[in-house]
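Practice record 12: protein with adenosine-2'-5'-diphosphate.
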Amino acid sequence: RAPAVTAGGSLTVPAIGFGTYGLNGLPALDVIRQAVASGYRLFDSAFNYENEGAVGAALRSASVPREELLITSKLPGRHHAHDEAIATIEESLLRTGLEYLDLYLIHWPNPGVGLYVEAWQALIEARERGLVRHIGVSNFLPDHLTALMEATGVTPEVNQIELHPYFQQETQRAFDREHGIITEAWSPLGRATDILQDPVLTGIAHKHQITVPQVVLRWHTLIGSVPLPKSADPQRQVQNLTVAGISLDEDDLAAIAALDRPAGRIWDQDPATYEEF
Ligand code: A2P
């Protein structure tokens, strides 16, 4: 298994986690149980994915002890007001059937709603009550993070952002690093769009006799990103987790760095303005 990554705070996470967006209902149970068997221990869900029930049921019946698993969910923008945030966290727990969640994130800053600081105070309270062990955010920009830290003195332990070779987020990663915040990557493979066919990445994969997803996931771990790939396929689940021994050289890393592009974002919304969700 890949080595762990530690934040400035008390949270240590595995180098690679498992994304669950798009896994729903009974079929999700088998996929998530399989992911545990494949070796994943960090799982990422969200209230809005409508799969907290499946994630909880799969992990409650998994063959590894609860304390070895790190289970994440996220607060939607429509529930940022304090009391709604608390009720939503409690509802997440009821849906998962778990006594606590390991990590709870504010899903988006939704700055137009203007309540993310209030939501953050609710997460701090939920952590004090033991409903969740660690708290963080997702899709937050430096301004949003600064506002949280100034208002509460509490630094998020994680910031989960869109991050892949076409959208490398260097400024945000530097900000996170400077504040001891773990950067997790959603859609680490660019959601299997053109990235998996990219000629530069294909060339690097051929050179090392590995697959393009392995090149990309190894790159994540080398730049200090914790990728959360999702795969329903057992062989691909294992393949995605088996990257620790891969040595990308300086030429490879320079070639990947050059793939970053201004229009590389997959999600067509900017966190600075995105309000739905
Ligand atoms: P599948 O579930 O059939 O494996 P992301 O995590 O960036 O959102 O990308 C997820 C997508 O990438 C899914 O469609 C998944 O399909 C696909 N995928 C994940 N791992 C691999 C892999 N090793 N090879 C090819 N496709 C993969």
